[in-house]
Amino acid sequence: MLYFRRLTWFIAGRMLLICVLVGMLVCGFFMAMDAANIYVVLNDGMQKRVDVILTRQQAEELNKYFHADFLIADEALEGALNGISAYSDYNITGFEYELTIEKLWAWPWDDFANCTVVERVPAIYGKVISSRRKEVSERIPSWQGGRYDITLVKAGGTWKIIGMQQKTILVEPDGKNDGMETEVLVS
Q1: Which of 31, 96, 97, 156 is the least crowded, having the fewest Cβ atoms under 10 Å away?
Q2: What is the model's pLDDT at position 175?
Q3: Which residues, other chains included, contact 35 with Cβ-Cβ below 8 Å and sequence gap of 6+?
Q4: SS3 state of residue 34
Q5: Which domains are seen in the chain, by residue range?
Q6: Distance CA 65, CA 12 (A)
Q7: For 167-178, what is the mean pLDDT?
Q8: Is 12 helix (H, G, I), strand (E, B) or coil?
Q9: Residue 122 region, left (φ>0) first, then alpha (ψ -120 to 50), else beta?
């Protein structure tokens, strides 16, 4: 009887260890899968947002990346689509975009994720609209990037950006400040 009890405890201990390891692997897999999906949504979504603000084209594609509540409340998008953006007087043909994800965390059992990103647009290419040449500067205004705390929600198996709060403003360099980036804290 003593040998049977030892054998049972040996098997039970090994089974418990195997179950714990398998549970950790499954949890790690789902965390990695969520992180990869969030990374794609952040990169593509934030770049598409800048594209729509600069060019005012293909705004309906934002629905792939952003929750409807965010799109309704985004003042930068609203200004661009209503023609009161700083870029309304320019025909933007292209831009360089950089997004750095500083922090990203999503539990596999949670439907919300939080991250911190730094967005920059170091260069914007285009020309003044011909009808506005005499009224505005030839120089395209610099993009005000920044550090953002972003909240994402998983709805129907798809991650979407639902909230974005700017923590600092990064003013892109122009010829006046010798290429040095300026950072301003937003309170």
Answers
A1: 156
A2: 42
A3: 104, 106
A4: helix
A5: 2-185 (3.10.450.50)
A6: 47
A7: 66
A8: helix
A9: alpha
